[in-house]
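ok so for the tutorial part 2 we go from a plain amino acid sequence to predicted structure tokens. step 1 is just haveing the sequence, like this:
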Amino acid sequence: MARYNRSHLTKIYIGDLGTNGYEEEIREAFRRHGPVNEVWVARNPPGFAFVYMEDFRDAEDAVRKIDGRTLCGQRVRVEIAKTKERSSRPRRQPATLCASANSLFKQFPLAFHYWLSM
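step 2 — the prediction. this is what the tokens look like for a chain of 118 residues:
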């Protein structure tokens, strides 16, 4: 399966697929509403999929028309997927913080013990 640059694509969530979600059936249902770049079907755990469409308006139309319909033998829930906002701040690494605390504990064990008992 080819991977696409998904930054300009609209991601659609399909839920309640059960264990019998078939990529081709999903692709065909969405293709009627506009170009589909990729279909990803979850296998472990099964029951959901994502469809990536080029045009946001086509994706909205597909969501309106397919939500609540039968797809792959199940009545499915379809919605525009929620996206995570990327933070501009770098993440802290917990391992580094733990290593620092461990180093302090080794250098000052009595002070550390006193601090913990407060």
